[in-house]
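In the design runs reported in the main text, the only information available to the sequence generator was the tokenized backbone. The following block is the verbatim input for one such run; it is reproduced so that readers can re-run the procedure and compare outputs position by position.
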């Protein structure tokens, strides 16, 4: 494949990396458990869209700016932290009184998608991962963005399949729990705690030296 070296190795490594639970996985599980399969699927689509945007940024060299600017790195990190904590606090303070079934009916899937995408885009660790990982499988003599785009798309597609599986099983196994109003509301609160925890963990991310 033009400009790409060891593509089968990249494919296997990418699959294995996607299997490792991370912030994206926790976000998807949280949405799926608290709000059901549709919310889980749309959160996956949002996360993968963010991954594709990161691919474009790396392909055209824009992500390198992040590795060289401490101010930009910290600004994106703080934005991500505040956003995750905001989502978590909203879920903790939710006093709508809706039953899980009513909450499902009022679920704003567009908002879930956008929130998933923003969760990915405001995580500088994801950008740094693409900057560090993709170039290892690109010929040093290659030019242009195409090799980056192919590798990024491959990684995102394998991630899409895995994350959709996570969303499906997490929502199916907790469906009966969500049908119970008290337990459904508790799952919502637990998800809020997970989001806050993700934000606090992101706060510990250090800029590359």
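Verbatim output:
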């Amino acid at each position: 494949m033009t400009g790409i070296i060891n593509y089968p190795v990249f494919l296997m490594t990418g699959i294995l990396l996607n299997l490792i639970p991370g912030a994206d996985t926790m976000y998807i599980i949280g949405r799926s458990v608290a709000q059901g399969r549709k919310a889980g699927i749309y959160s996956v689509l949002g996360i993968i869209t963010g991954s594709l945007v990161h691919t474009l940024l790396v392909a055209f060299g824009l992500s390198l700016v992040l590795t060289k600017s401490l101010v930009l790195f910290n600004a994106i990190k703080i934005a991500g932290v505040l956003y995750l904590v905001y989502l978590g606090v909203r879920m903790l303070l939710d006093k709508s009184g809706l039953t899980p079934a009513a909450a499902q009916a009022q679920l704003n899937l567009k908002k879930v998608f956008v929130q998933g995408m923003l969760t990915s885009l405001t995580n500088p660790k994801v950008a740094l991962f693409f900057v560090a990982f993709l170039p290892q499988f690109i010929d040093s003599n290659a030019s242009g963005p195409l090799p980056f785009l192919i590798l990024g798309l491959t990684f995102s597609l394998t991630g899409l399949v895995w994350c959709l599986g996570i969303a499906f099983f997490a929502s199916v196994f907790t469906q009966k729990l969500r049908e119970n109003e008290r337990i459904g509301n508790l799952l919502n609160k637990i998800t809020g705690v997970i989001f806050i925890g993700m934000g606090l963990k992101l706060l510990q991310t250090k800029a590359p030296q």
